[in-house]
Specification:
A: TIM Barrel, 8 strands, 45% helix, globular, B: 291 residues, alpha/beta, five-stranded parallel sheet, three-stranded antiparallel sheet
């Protein structure tokens, strides 16, 4: 059922002008991501420049939402993004496995925020969740949320939390829904997120999983009025896929969620495909991926 | 006994190793001499072209990385498979009334020979077009050709099969992936060529074949920035102009040859390594030499 319904969002016919709007909106929702062992300060700085001005030949295009990096790279991203609207997101809490003692994970989070992270992408302990220790998972999320509230970053704000469920390891939609409800109920507040994947496990984000999570967010909103955001990550590479996701958000949660504050794409290659399609709409001819820098 | 209804074949595009209908859902009727509709062919749209370019681009690195010897084996296999379908090609070429049986056979045979010739060139063109440069210093200095990348082959109306293959084979031999557009007279022969390619050990996407209305696709080909070069011949002036106009924006290499219907049968002309030369890039390497 979820798969069928999710697949139907890709069948909507979208007018040319709406498509340009959707592509720009999608670009503004991208968390431009680099999470490699080989990340260097130079690569992160280049990615930050790309995040601020995605296509130098089209300066009117929006910046991306955030640059997503490992905690060690946060100060570099912070400095490179100074003065822009682009946020710094740090993966923390023993990313990507989460298989570290809680004290280490709390400390990881605190240091990332102190170094300048506006947003923390945490991983849950899938091992505990699958072993049935749901209260411990909820408690861990709550403690990390507490760190986000009590620690202020250099610009004086607190960090928003994104909870990564790593749905590729949860096997069933039932488990995804339970994990979503669990994360949301662990004390997430307005503009905190739940997120599908680390991008290190296959399958990553799929339309079916995203729909299940969006419905969890919707049900929670109808019950409590709290707006939780959604971030599918990994595997979304084309503008066409991105537009189908936007349709899904609109038809599940409504226009209020069509903002970077409540919906993000975690992706490294999606931005370039969006830029390529926008260039095609602007110039009328097809472009080459070679024309767009990786970072 | 009731007379049997003939089961006619639906001719389709050849993209990424598959045989899809046009994304647009369009088809064109093909008539015989008596103006009877004998078949429908797929009428490719700009989106089919776009899909073909995506498929070809994906196939470039693998095809380019194969040894010339292996590319030669595969192109020779194409010749074998084409020979095996000779009767089908002859029937297709005769259909619009442009060919007698003798002419159709001559064209198919010349097409097979053309493929064999370029199967031979795959591991030899670099000796002819590359060189060892004399330099003042203790170095060996080589210039070696490498494939340009993605080439569009745009065929004239006649000779529909021979010209199409003659335009595909040279860039293919050098390691380029191809998006080919058939001429307007013989789309069925082009579609059957797709079936030959699909059974020739040619990796999916290395050659893609579009049929339909050639002039309609040309602006999209010439303006597409992910097509590196165009190999065309004997086009009407306005179509050649369309190709050249698009190229002025993106500086892709466009070669529109003037061969003439008889010229295509001239093996000395059409199997020259200079037919390969526009679709290669020259790489020069300095290597220290012991003194």
């Amino acid at each position: 059922m979820a798969d069928q319904r999710a697949a139907s969002f890709a069948t909507r016919s979208i007018k040319e002008s709406s498509k340009v709007h959707a592509l720009k909106l999608a670009l503004s929702m991208v968390d431009l991501t680099t999470l490699e062992g080989a990340d260097s300060p130079g690569k992160v700085r280049a990615l930050c420049r790309k995040g601020i001005t995605p296509d130098p030949t089209a300066p009117d295009l929006p910046s991306v939402a955030a640059i997503c990096v490992y905690p060690e790279m946060v100060p570099i991203a912070r400095a490179a993004l100074a003065g822009s609207t682009v946020k710094v997101a740090a993966v923390a809490t023993g990313f990507p496995s989460g298989q570290y003692p809680l004290s280490v994970r709390l400390d990881d989070t605190k240091r990332a925020i102190e170094a300048g992270a506006d947003e923390i992408d945490m991983v849950i302990s899938r091992g505990l969740f699958l072993a049935g220790e749901r209260d411990r998972v909820r408690d861990e999320i709550a403690q990390i949320k507490e760190v986000c509230i009590s620690t202020s970053n250099p610009s004086g704000g607190s960090a928003h939390l994104k909870v990564i469920l790593e749905t590729g390891e949860l096997e069933t939609y039932d488990a995804v829904r339970r994990a979503s409800d669990l994360a949301i109920s662990a004390g997430l507040t307005d503009y905190d997120f739940i997120k599908t994947s680390t991008g290190k496990v296959q399958p990553a984000a799929t339309p079916g999983v995203t729909l299940v999570m969006l419905e969890a967010i919707r049900d929670h909103y109808l019950r409590t009025g709290i707006r939780i955001g959604m971030k599918p990550a990994g595997g979304i590479r084309t503008a066409k896929q991105a537009i189908a996701y936007l349709v899904m958000v609109k038809e599940t949660l409504g226009d209020d969620w069509l903002t970077p504050d409540l919906f993000r794409f975690g992706a490294s290659t999606l931005a370039n495909d969006l830029l390529m399609q926008l260039a095609r709409m602007r110039t009328g001819h097809y472009h080459s991926p070679d024309d767009f820098a990786e970072a | 006994m009731p007379s049997r209804l003939t089961v006619t074949k639906t001719y389709k595009l050849y993209i990424g190793g598959d045989f899809p209908r046009s994304e647009s859902g369009r088809s064109l009727p093909v008539h015989d001499l008596d103006e009877r509709v004998v078949a429908h062919i797929a009428h490719a749209s700009r989106k089919d072209l776009r899909n073909a370019v995506v498929a070809a681009r994906k196939a470039v690195p693998g095809w380019m990385a194969r040894t010339g010897y292996n590319r030669g084996q595969i192109i020779y296999r194409m010749a074998e498979m084409l020979e095996g379908k000779a009767d089908e090609f002859i029937t297709a070429l005769m259909l619009p009334g442009t060919h007698t049986k003798r002419e159709a056979r001559a064209e198919v045979e010349a097409t097979v020979d053309r493929l064999v010739a370029f199967a031979g060139w795959t591991d030899k063109f670099s000796q002819v077009l590359g060189c060892h440069n004399p330099v003042a210093g203790p170095y060996y200095n080589f210039t070696v050709p490498e494939a340009t990348g993605l080439v569009a082959a745009v065929a004239p109306d006649e000779p529909g099969l021979l010209a199409l293959v003659s335009l595909i084979a040279p860039p293919l031999a050098a390691g380029n992936a191809i998006v080919a557009v058939s001429g307007n007279h013989h789309p069925i022969a082009a579609s059957i060529l797709g079936e030959v390619l699909a059974t020739s050990d040619l990796p999916a996407g290395v050659v893609n074949i579009l049929t339909g209305n050639r002039a309609e696709l040309l602006p999209w080909i010439s303006e597409h920035r992910d097509i590196d070069a165009v190999h065309a011949a004997d086009l009407p002036d306005d179509e050649a102009l369309t190709l050249r106009r698009g190229m002025s924006e993106n500086i892709k290499r466009v070669r529109v040859r003037e061969v003439g219907e008889d010229g295509w049968f001239d093996a000395d002309l059409c199997t020259s390594p200079w037919w390969i030369e526009p679709f290669i890039e020259m790489k020069t390497i300095w290597h220290p030499a012991a003194t």
